[in-house]
Design a protein that fits this description.
The complex is a heterodimer of chains A (about 210) and B (about 575). Chain A is an alpha+beta fold. Chain A contains four helices and nine strands, in the order E-H-E-E-H-E-E-H-E-E-H-E-E. With about 575 residues, chain B is an alpha/beta fold. The chains are: A alpha+beta (about 210), B alpha/beta (about 575). The complex binds thiamine diphosphate (TPP). Chain B: This is Acetolactate synthase.
């Protein structure tokens, strides 16, 4: 017997959504999260290989029940074509971060050495600071930041996590809820009509 | 063809025969085009809120989509309450609003409001049509979304220049009605197992079960399981059936609330476990394994722990559960329930309950009963007996005062052959009473208005009495109420009044027999309460079954206080 409101320790859940590329989609989704009190820890949005479809990856914190409820609410939105819960499949995830580290003549070499160990690239060189670009999973990025912290981190900017399911049938998880397949996952990607950018000739009339 | 004409043509293709609305600058092309589409009747309300509640009444009575229309800015914002109402009560509704021309959008132009932004959380979906080529497709899609799955309101905002733009494409036709998913056989099998082993089973049917009423009735009878219908589900199971236990929740029946509290298996069908139904959630059905049949996956497990989720159409689920039914022989449970049922209170003394009962006892099976929000609503829900679904129209989820009267107009217009009765309070009626003009304008003859006049915002007064030590803050209407009979007559609507038990039956007769729509004011004592009642935050088993003996009124301290104040001044 499954139990839908089981409580357990809140943790981070990585979820992707394929959404129609329409105005206000982002507002709709974030408003839904906000109203129902789900906190989004990280969010990244970008176009997909399919015209008219964007992909969002977000990290929601909560117990299993909370996250499942959030996903079900999301799934009801007309703009949401498919939800992918990465915790149910093997997946790869990445995050990109820019880190600006303070340097002094003494620390310069050491900082560069650590960056090299992390295969990080230097994207900006200043007299008193170096800016690094690091990609990797969350652990790697956190480790990088921890290594740099003693030298003095001036600024960081992280993109938020992005993720893809592993394997050839990427993004078509065998199941999303623990009660098995859901019918609502059916709406095929093909049913999405791409919005053509039409020339806007706006007559001036009241 | 213009965009505006394409709009009407699309609505006509969808079989929309009546729309409720109010014109204005940004929707004028649509009103202009209306004159070319006599197949669609437009009903001019006296306030956009009246228009949208009428559309809701239409939809709730027929199960078909209701349509309303308003201009930009203030017209559109006047729809907000109705949209929120339709959202919470899952009413299929299409709201069309005009907006300023595209080049003015976002400039804070005259009568511009970002209505799609405003209504984002209270619509199932909404659109701005920025291209006339998309207009018919969007309207068709909006209607499909409003009706499919769990129904709800969809708003389509059309800039004025899009209404005027030339349209040369096809006019859209309805989408095929999407089939609801059938429940999984494994889920049904699990539910059946639970029911077979049940010693104290109960069925609870909500607003989502109205269209499965025949199947649920067959199911309950086949298993011999008692049925509770929620406020929104009243009529889903015939009240005359001995298996019926009444309504659950804050003002639910003793039998319903006790049965829920004792049940070992609760089969919920088409409902969302609203907090007014459950009371304190961790005290709700504390001993029961819950089977939840529901179309909307997001509702399963949202509020209560569900043992067996049955995702799918209530009609199909009920049929599947009936096929495998086995009559349960549970004499002890039956006896217990009979005892609870005997605790039903019937109002015998003159008061709001007596008045409401006198009116609802006159309902014929086809008559539609609407109510506004307040004590009279709960009394009507407790005392009316519905044999059929879609004969009870009220604002359950949002609890919208001002809803009842326009909704009764909408329902009455949808079914001109039946009597559409509305019970309202003296407070709520005054929120949308201007719709008396709508009755007059369209010579509507089947709407019967009953006002229970207790000179108070009764429900709020009851809470003040029970939970705020009788500090009656801002709930007295007595000094400023209009003469409701004269008011009605000012709109050419005949008015009747009764102030005691003796004259009431005669007045009800005359009011119902009047060939026109008519208003009956029933003047009742000021301080009656609605019981049973489960105080907010309490569990259902903590219900107060009958009205507590009225305490002595608080002593009048005004003289002493004046004296003290005087003393303070002199000191
Ligand atoms: C629009 C709106 N405003 C306020 C309320 C809060 N409210 C709920 S019941 C009620 C009193 C209703 O009084 P009346 O219409 O006279 O009916 P009664 O309770 O006396 O039967 C109020 C103010 C509401 N439900 N809706």
């Amino acid at each position: 017997m499954s139990d839908y409101t089981m409580t357990e320790q809140p943790k981070d859940h990585l979820v992707s959504a394929l959404v129609r590329d329409e105005p206000r989609v982002l507002t709709r989704i974030t408003a839904l999260f906000g109203r129902r009190g789900y906190n989004i820890r990280s969010l990244s949005v970008g176009a997909t290989e399919h015209p008219g479809l964007s992909r969002m990856t977000f990290v929601v914190t909560g117990d299993r029940g909370v996250v499942e409820q959030a996903m079900r609410q999301l799934e009801k939105l007309h703009d949401v074509v498919r939800i992918i819960d990465h915790s149910l499949e093997k997946f790869v995830d990445r995050e990109l971060v820019l880190v600006k580290v303070a340097i002094s003549p003494d620390s310069r070499v050491e900082v560069r050495q650590i960056a090299e160990d992390f295969r990080s690239r230097i994207v900006d060189v200043g007299r008193h600071a170096l800016t690094f670009e690091v990609t990797g999973d969350e652990g790697k990025i956190t480790a990088f930041i921890e290594q740099m912290r003693p030298f003095g981190i001036l600024e960081t900017m992280r993109t938020g996590r992005i993720a893809l399911t592993r394997g050839s049938n990427a993004d078509i998880p065998s199941h999303v809820y623990h009660d098995g397949e859901t019918e609502t996952l059916r709406p095929a990607v093909e049913s999405v009509e791409p919005r053509e950018e039409r020339a806007r000739d706006v007559p001036n009339l009241f | 063809m213009t965009g505006a004409k394409a709009l009407w043509a699309t609505l006509a293709n969808h079989g929309i025969s009546t729309v409720f609305g109010y014109p204005g600058g940004a929707i004028m092309p649509v009103y202009d085009a209306l004159t070319f589409y006599p197949e669609v009747r437009h009903v001019l309300a006296r306030h956009e809120q009246g228009a949208i509640h009428a559309a809701e009444g239409w939809a709730k009575a027929t199960g078909e989509i209701g349509v309303c229309i308003a201009t930009s800015g203030p017209g559109a914002t006047n729809l907000v309450t109705g949209l929120a109402d339709a959202m919470l009560d899952s009413v299929p509704l299409l709201a069309i609003t005009g907006n300023v021309a595209r080049h003015l959008m976002g400039t804070d132009a005259f009568q511009e409001a970002d209505i799609t932004g405003i209504t984002l959380p209270i619509t199932k979906h909404n659109y701005v049509v920025r291209d006339v080529e998309e207009l018919p497709r969007v309207i068709a899609e909006a209607i499909r979304i409003a009706r499919s799955g769990r129904p709800g309101p969809v708003l389509v905002d059309i800039p004025k220049d899009v209404q005027l733009a030339a349209y040369a494409g096809e006019v859209a036709y309805p989408h095929a009605r999407p089939e609801h998913p059938a429940p999984k056989p494994e889920a049904i099998a699990k539910a059946r197992e639970l029911l077979l082993a049940a010693k104290k089973p109960v069925i609870m049917a909500g607003g989502g079960s109205l269209d499965a009423s025949a199947e649920i009735t067959a199911l309950a009878r086949a298993w011999d399981i008692p049925v509770i219908t929620t406020l929104m589900g009243l009529g889903a199971f015939p009240s005359s059936d001995p298996l019926w236990l009444g309504m659950p929740g804050m003002h639910g029946s003793v039998a319903a609330n006790r049965a829920i509290s004792e049940a070992d298996v609760l089969l919920g069908i088409g409902l969302r476990f609203d907090d007014r139904v459950t009371g304190r959630v961790n005290g709700f059905a504390p001993n029961a394994a819950i089977i939840h049949v529901e179309l909307d996956a997001a509702e399963i497990g949202k509020i209560v722990r569900v043992g067996v989720p049955v995702r799918g159409d209530a009609v199909v689920a009920a049929k599947m559960l009936t096929e495998s039914a086995q009559k349960l022989d549970l004499p002890e449970w039956r006896a217990q329930i009979a005892e609870w049922k005997s605790r039903t209170v019937t109002p015998t003394e003159w008061g709001a309950g007596f008045a409401v009962k006198s009116v609802v006892d006159r309902l014929r099976p086809d008559d539609i009963l609407s109510s506004d929000v307040g004590q009279h609503q709960m009394l009507a829900a407790q005392l009316a007996r519905f044999e059929k679904p879609r004969r009870w129209i009220n604002s359950g989820g949002l609890g919208t005062m001002g809803f009842g009267f326009p909704a009764a107009i909408g329902a009455g217009m949808a079914e001109p052959g039946v009597t559409s009765i509305v019970i309202a309070g003296d407070g709520g009626f005054q929120m949308t009473l201007q719709e008396l003009a709508t009755l007059k304008m369209y010579d509507i003859r089947n709407v019967k208005i009953c006002i229970i006049n207790n000179s108070y915002l009764g429900m709020v007064r009851q809470w003040q009495e029970l939970f705020h030590e009788k500090r009656y803050s801002e709930v007295w209407l007595g000094d400023s109420n209009p003469d409701f009979v004269k008011l009605a007559e000012a709109y050419d609507v005949p008015g009747y009044r009764a102030s005691n038990a003796e004259e009431l039956p005669g007045m009800i007769d005359a009011w119902l027999a009047d060939p026109k729509s008519a208003l009956l004011e029933i003047v009742v004592p000021h301080e009656h309460g609605v019981f049973p009642m489960v105080p907010a935050g309490a569990a259902l088993y903590e219900m107060i079954e009958t009205e507590p003996p009225r305490k002595q009124p608080a002593p009048d301290l005004s003289a002493e206080m004046a004296e003290a104040a005087e003393g303070a001044k002199n000191a």
